[in-house]
Specification:
Helix content: 40-55%
Number of helices: 16
Distance between the termini: 13 Å
Radius of gyration: 28 Å
Length: 489
């Protein structure tokens, strides 16, 4: 049986503050390079070893339902930061709880709530302005090194990560994946996709790859059911004796067999691939291929029929290499405004996916393929747990570098927040609260570290704003409504 309970005024707010504070004290253990791990019971399975703020916050469940409201708020803000940045989860919880405590004290002092709210907003704005003014651009190799050391929490992967981010450059993408054996770094330049030739029947006998030099590219946003649909178009290139890569959304089994038969019978230099990805992602990728190669996108949506293929409507590449698993384009043709327009479209896709981390990463990879390429960083480990931890460290470092390139860096380790709070002064509503992450880091032994930590400015600014919004929403509580679960006997 579920019953509704009401918790009023100071009692409700006190329990909410208590719940948030308890979570913060636990989460703060994971802050910094000298952070502790938290062991979480998960009977009957083996315990969870948690080392990030969000992982720890996720495990907290209080018997008091009002305390659980405070815990859930900390969990939510931690998830928001994790999803957006991949780091900063413990910092945002520490700061949110400290700001909540400061606002609660101010409220209990009898001051007018509207005055407190206005003062709080002004103080947060001043902290953000102070952080922004102290930004240093990331330019030199040492700048990148400091960001990586701070985000990854040590030097285990430092050199490999440094090489990866420098190889990718500001326009590239670093993809962190599990390694089968040892750590490895692969630098992929140009346009490359998973998914190779359409059929082994289209590959030269005994060859592991298909290579087309100075080839034409036809991109078709549609399904090919029979070779009769594309026969006239193929005949044009057979007569010209020019290599052709035909890319389509999908091919029927019959079309694959017929196309292979045509190649064997005529010796035509024709290769075919299915657009990479699934669902709508195929359409994204085939449009990217068309833009990169200068091809018109044929199909109903674009309004161009394969019956009207002309040399000025097809794309061109210096070289195409296809294997059973990969398609790689070597492009030396300037496709001009079309390619730049496509990049602008993808940047819009990235911006629209800001709250969908998986989609955002896929769009960022699309942009990197059309710009500088993708660097694949394979991370190993002696055990599954060790590999997962090292992969997490590498991903945090990659995200931190991306953020630092956008906005520059500021003093890390809680130092920038502490100094911004000191500018507000001890008599302010929230000034001392901004020291909370620094105090937690010092308690964890970070003060004895030899690192000169640097944090991306936009990450820390986002942490401040989200922590402030969370604290402000909780402190305004006058009544809490809970629906406690009935405990099993």
């Amino acid at each position: 049986m579920v019953t509704t309970r009401f918790h009023f005024a100071d009692d409700a707010r006190r329990s909410i503050v208590d719940g948030a504070t308890k979570v913060a004290r636990l989460v703060e253990l994971t802050l910094g390079p000298a952070a502790r791990t938290v062991l979480v019971e998960r009977a009957p399975g083996r315990p969870l070893v948690a080392s990030s703020g969000y992982d720890v916050a996720l495990q907290v469940d209080f018997a008091c339902p009002v305390e659980q409201i405070g815990a859930q708020a900390m969990r939510n803000v931690s998830w928001e930061v994790s999803d957006r940045w991949g780091d900063g989860t413990a910092t945002v919880v520490s700061l949110a709880a400290a700001l909540l405590q400061s606002l609660d004290r101010a409220d209990k002092s009898g001051r007018d709530r509207r005055t407190i709210s206005a003062t709080f907003g002004a103080e947060v704005a001043e902290v953000v302005a102070t952080l922004t003014r102290s930004t240093t651009p990331v330019v030199e190799e040492e700048d990148f090194r400091q960001v990586i050391e701070t985000a990854a929490g040590g030097d285990d992967l430092l050199q490999l990560l440094l090489e990866a981010v420098l190889s990718a450059g500001p326009q590239g993408y670093v993809d962190v994946v599990p390694a089968v054996d040892a750590d490895a770094l692969e630098v992929g330049r140009g346009l490359a996709f998973d998914g190779g030739w359409l059929s082994s029947d289209l590959a030269p006998s005994g060859k592991s790859s298909v290579v087309l030099d100075k080839a034409y590219v036809v991109a078709f946003d549609g399904a090919v059911q029979s070779i009769a649909e594309i026969g006239p178009m193929l005949d044009v290139f057979v007569r010209m004796d020019r290599p052709l890569l035909f890319v389509a959304t999908s091919f029927s089994d019959e079309a694959k067999i017929q196309l292979g038969s045509l190649v064997r019978r005529t010796g035509a230099k024709i290769a075919a691939v299915r657009a990479p990805g699934e669902g709508d992602w195929r359409r994204f990728h085939i449009g990217d291929i068309a833009a990169a190669t200068g091809s018109t996108l044929f199909g109903d949506e674009g309004g161009y029929s394969l019956k009207n293929v002309r040399p000025e409507l097809v794309g061109r590449v210096q070289k195409i290499e296809l294997t059973a698993n990969e398609s790689r384009f070597e492009i030396d043709v300037d496709t001009g405004p079309e390619l730049e327009f496509r990049k602008a479209q993808i940047r819009g896709d990235v911006a629209r996916s800001r709250y969908l981390s998986l989609d955002r990463e896929r769009h960022e990879k699309r942009l990197a393929r059309l710009s500088a390429g993708i660097v694949t960083l394979s991370i190993s480990g002696h055990t599954e747990r060790e590999r997962a931890q090292r992969i997490g460290s590498a991903q945090r470092a990659v995200q931190a570098i991306k953020a630092a390139r956008q906005s520059g860096t500021i003093a890390g380790g809680g130092i920038a927040l502490r100094e911004a709070g000191r500018i507000l002064g001890n008599s302010s509503v929230t000034g001392p609260a901004f020291e909370a992450p620094f105090r937690a880091l010092s308690a964890n032994g970070a003060a004895a570290s030899s690192l000169s930590p640097r944090d991306p400015c936009n990450l820390l600014v986002d942490v401040v704003r989200r922590a402030a919004a969370t604290a402000a929403s909780l402190v305004s509580t006058d009544v809490a409504i809970t629906h406690p679960r009935r405990l099993a006997n």
